[in-house]
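dude i think i finally got it to work??
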Amino acid sequence: MVDEPKDTTAAQGSLLGGDDRFLNELVANTRRLYVYISTLVPPQAEAEDIYQQTCLALWQKRHLYDATRPFFAWACGFARNEALRHLRTVRSSRMLLTEKTLDAIAAEQGMFEPERIDRRRSALDDCLDALHPRQRSLLERCYTEDDTIHSIAQHMKISPAALTMRLQRIRHAVVKCVEQTLGTGKATR
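look at this
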């Protein structure tokens, strides 16, 4: 008996739909994932490499993702593994964070507690919304655009030191607001 060729069009459509959902989650969490990686491996060039490796690993294992679970926590697990792999390969050439230190940073960051992340993100959004529009605009310009502190200060006709001080005061106010909103009362930098 000869098997009939199966129609795979429906299965392919289902797979593509899953890939679209996966890609939407990845894109929505790109910045948060990169920031998390940069806390584990501070040199920017290394963080970028680890981010790329993490995205590749996530893509290769996308079929394992359970859409009922928080994507970000799942992705952070991959990022941590990639950071550890990187650590093992360069450990002999220079002093880097140990696995124990990486675990401590991850635990402190609360990356595997999605509810805590969501509460902090919501508090941060509320606190940023409460800023004076000029303060909010300054933060956005300094942290989302490619301008340097020097060029922004020059445009504002103030010294880079004065701009840095303004940013420090704004960041302090935002941290204080988030702490008060969450009722933590401690710095979480």
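The chain has a mean pLDDT of 79.
im so relieved honestly
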